[in-house]
């Protein structure tokens, strides 16, 4: 379980918000993921990555199930895997903390909801130096949601960003883990831009590249 302080920061600085602007399906800088009748479409603004950068991402969640699902309204976390060179943006991944519980946004059967988030790239990467990690060259999304919402009624679509209830947090922790489901999208090519183009690996220089989108 994450520490209370870390959970509190995530909740208080929540940057996820419902948007009236759906993802543009004709946009080539788009990723898609589907799993068990839930679909994610996301549009990534920008094609460069650098430390201490915030990427704006619009994403749609389409629920084709006969039951309601829910996603935690918190800022996304980013992680980097140097073996695959993929930066993964984790959306809705929070579980109940020691004190606070996040607001849950519901998506009803047959409904599509649009969101906008800012994903912070906050991990240092040393490029082209002895012992440095290889630079990232791809970006994908991993979206976490609750497959059922019965036990979470006190958190659904509430006006507050979070609820302070240690007993409820302790009660919901195992249920949250059990009900959590994940969708992973395809990845987009990205350029690592530390500030000096000469420091980029050769395979990350050049013009704009397009990534295929799964139907």
Short recap of the structure:
The chain is mostly beta strands and 215 residues long. 11% of the residues lie in helices and 38% in strands.
Write the layout of secondary structure elements.
Layout: H1 4-12, E1 17-19, E2 30-35, E3 38-44, E4 48-49, E5 53-63, E6 69-72, E7 77-81, E8 86-91, E9 100-102, E10 104-107, E11 112-121, E12 138-146, E13 162-164, H2 166-179, E14 180-184, E15 188-189, E16 191-192
Parallel strand pairs: 4-16, 8-12
Antiparallel strand pairs: 1-11, 2-3, 3-5, 5-11, 6-10, 7-8, 9-13, 12-14, 12-15
First CA to last CA: what distance? 36 Å
What's the average pLDDT?
80
Based on CA atoms alone, the radius of gyration comes out at 18 Å
Q: Please indicate the percent range of residues in DSSP E strands (runs of 2 or more).
A: 35-45%
Broad structural category: mainly beta
- What's the order of the H and E elements? HEEEEEEEEEEEEEHEEE
The count of β-strands is: 16
The helicity comes to: 10-25%
List descriptors.
disordered N terminus, 11% helix, five-stranded antiparallel β-sheet, mainly beta, 215 residues, disordered C terminus
Describe what this molecule looks like in 3D:
The protein is mostly beta strands and 215 residues long. 11% of the residues lie in helices and 38% in strands. It is built from two helices and 16 strands. It has helices at residues 4-12, 166-179; strands spanning 17-19, 30-35, 38-44, 48-49, 53-63, 69-72, 77-81, 86-91, 100-102, 104-107, 112-121, 138-146, 162-164, 180-184, 188-189, 191-192. The strands form five sheets. The chain has a five-stranded antiparallel sheet with strand order 1-11-5-3-2, with no helix packed on it. Strands 7, 8, 12, 14 and 15 form a five-stranded mixed sheet that branches. It has a two-stranded parallel ribbon with strand order 4-16. Strand 2 and strand 3 form a beta hairpin. The protein is globular. Mean pLDDT is 80; it is low at 1-15 and 196-215.
């Amino acid at each position: 379980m994450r520490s209370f302080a870390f959970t509190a920061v995530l909740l208080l600085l929540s940057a996820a918000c419902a948007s009236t602007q759906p993802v543009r399906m004709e946009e080539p800088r788009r990723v898609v993921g589907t799993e068990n009748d839930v679909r994610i479409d996301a549009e990534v603004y920008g094609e460069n990555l650098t430390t201490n950068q915030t990427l704006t991402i619009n994403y749609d969640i389409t629920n084709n199930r006969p039951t309601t699902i829910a996603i935690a309204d918190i800022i996304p976390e980013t992680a980097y895997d140097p073996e695959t060179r993929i930066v993964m943006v984790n959306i809705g991944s929070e579980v109940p903390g020691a004190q606070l519980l996040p607001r849950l946004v519901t998506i009803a059967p047959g409904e599509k909801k649009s969101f906008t988030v800012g994903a912070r790239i906050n991990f240092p990467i040393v490029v082209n130096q002895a012992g440095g990690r290889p630079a990232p060259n791809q970006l994908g999304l991993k979206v976490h949601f609750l497959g059922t919402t019965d036990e979470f009624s006190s958190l659904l679509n509430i006006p507050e960003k979070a609820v302070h209830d240690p007993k409820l947090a302790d009660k919901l922790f195992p249920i949250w883990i059990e009900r959590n489901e994940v969708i992973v999208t395809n990845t987009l090519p990205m350029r690592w831009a530390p500030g000096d183009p000469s420091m980029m690996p050769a395979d990350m220089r050049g013009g704009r590249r397009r990534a295929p989108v799964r139907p």
